[in-house]
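Moderator note: this is an archived Q&A kept for reference. The question asked for a predicted structure of one protein chain; the sequence and the answer are reproduced below.
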Amino acid sequence: MNALPDAPAITWDGVQRGYVPGATLDVPSSLRLHSASSDEVDPVTFEVIRYSLMNINLEHGRTLQRLCVSPVTMITRDFQPSITTQEGDLVFLGPYLQYFSNSQSMTIKWILEHRAEDPGIEPGDMFLSNDPFVGSPHQPDAVVAAPVFVGDELFCWVSNVLHHTDVGGSVMGSFCVDATDMFLDPPAFPPFKLVSRGVVRTDLEQMFLRQSRVPTNVHMDLRAAISANLVASGKITKLVERYGADVVKSVMNRVLDAGERTIAERLRKVPDGVWSHRLYAEAARTGDDATYVYRMTLRKTGEHLYVDNRGTDPQAGSINVAYAGFVGAFLAALTASLTADLAGAYGGVYRRVHFDPVPGTLSCADFPAAVSPAGMYTMETLISLAGTVIGKMLACAEPEIAALAIGPAHPAFYGLVTGGATADGTPFIATNVDNMIGSLAASPAGDGVDFGGHFWIPEGTASNVEELELLWPMLFLYRRALPGGAAGAGRHRGGRGLVEAGIPWKVPGLVTAVYVDESFPKAVGGFGANPGSIGRFRLKHGSDVRATMQDGRIPTDFDAIAGADAAIEAKGPALQVADDGVWEWTGANACGFGDPLAREPHLVAADIAAGSLPASAAERVYGVALDTAGQVDESATAARRDALLAARLATATMPDRIETAPEDAPLRLLGGELAIAEHDGGSRQFVTVTGRALLGPITANYKQRCAVRERPIRELGPEFATREGRAGWAIRYREYLCPVTGRRIDTELLREGDEPLHDIAL
């Protein structure tokens, strides 16, 4: 998790820009750190201590879940506990929000370098920070870190980070989409000593709580964080008393070393190369509808990975994140893909990853950039981006490593933040994170998972509707699956998400503070699949919902509800919802994998029979013809697919020449239609699988030898429709086709003026 040794001299201080700890921390000698370890640890003792540490961290998480009162933590598990070494290197992470993986580590390292002398680090202390330029992804994510001492030596740290319902700023819920800089964002507190020798400093606690619109909730969750740290530190102290400090530290070090060996062994099975991808965002703040680009490039050399963000747009509006968020997003996607079996023992993995970002950009912003909406937008964008880049890398690996690939995550966290006052005048903020229901993308191994959650928060759950109606003054009309269709289609289809609608209940109205309404999809499917779906928010004023309910019917079709549609922006202002208002918002269908025209026809029929796919999408999306009994008509399907493939080539720009590999040339499959073949005496070239079209040497850009078809993304299907004037109207969809068969090899989204990417080079 270090910057490149030959990087230009940039001050990564956690003040002007993100904090990047050096290879050696600058810790004053007055603070004694325990570093001794024992060479006499037998295998049984090692396993007992290893699993004791893991279980201490898991109990830390369970304690948080039991003691927190806010649904976003109590139910959703938007938190993360961890154990680190005395210098802040991660030993164990919990199965909760994974992009917090480095937040606590970086915050602890900053505390060691900047707080050890003044005010000092002593037994019983705890430090709080929500500063994104130190370690938090955004201000609602507050770290509480506690040193664990053995005698007069700092032995290790326990810490947690959790999302608080509101920590101030211009928008309730603290996702300040209207912010143009940090001064309209919630306050960002660098680490300060919240607990001194076991006593909470109420003056500083009150300072933190004073920023919140719901201080009682934040107070309870903050005390839960303190209590959970006490539980974990107490159990570590008892473990040390039983086995000795040097023995326990030896196990910690060996856990780190084992993680490093694991990633090194797996990287040896990946060829050296460079992989790149980009994602677009729309609107940097309220009132803006421009399009912005995030780019990530991954280089693998030997047993190390090098990550940069060159090509990312300069920081703008509120869609930024600092260095800690960029790093956390990549590490979350990497460990989920390549080392999930380490079960949270990821610190050693991080040793083999090196970051070289460009400061002052959307994904590595300098102070005073606004970053508070990052938890709904930018972090998910970067996780999706990282997952795509890592998936391209793994596709080039040996088969057992390639099989570990997972598809891209949702590029935003689709949800809704509302607020107001209950009937008795009590203020409330409803952070609706029902999109924890989620959906998982397709992978080389098969279909994605309907309602499969998110890989970056394995323990995340959505609330029962009844729980939310008990907590908040609203009534839910329906929560159901999004229909399948072009969104998420592929040889393997992506999992389906949800759609949900509600109304104010027993109050005159409420305010929708934050919502997601996109005009184009952001994440493309792997190796020729369709993008995932567009996140939408709809609001009608003056609806007939209550009259319909009085007639004994519950509305289940938003289009059939009478009322005036509100004008919605991608990152619009807060919207007033009177008691006759009704809203609907969607999660997302996840991305597919491979060309939809290569999907097994019987799987299309099975999806229709199961209600997962409208019958009308069979021919339109997959080229599958069904008879009147719903069975596949094989001859009609073959004819329909041939016609669709021919139509692709008829409207494509063809390469200057088409060469093919011999039929007996062995192919090394990468993904979908893309493979590598030995040609002309051993040179390795990209080649298509079914047409065997040669696409040039593996060092070159294979896209230059493809047939290319480009059109507005809205023409891919009605699922991607948008209105003229919005950002998505101008976004182009480029398909790279086998020039022999017309099968898709890959796809790109492009804004006007952007050049296609050279995204794989070996």
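Archived answer notes: The longest strand covers residues 153-163.
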